[in-house]
Amino acid sequence: MGPLEFVKDRAIILSSVLGYTVWKETYGQAHWKILTTKLTDFHLFLITYPVVLIVYFTFSLIFAYIDFFVAPDGGISGVRLQPKKDHTWMQYKRAIPLVMFNLFVMSPILTIGSIYLMFPASPYYTDQPSGMYPSLPSTFMVLRDLLLSMVLRDMIFYYLHRLFHHPAVYATFHKKHHEFTAPIAVSALYADPIDFALTNLAPLLVGPLLLNSHPVTMWFYFAEAIIETVSVHSGYNWPGFPCADMHDFHHETFNSMFSLLGLGDYIHGTDAKFCLRMEKKGKTA
Question: Which of 114, 138, 129 lies closest to 44, judged by CA?
Answer without folding.
Answer: 129
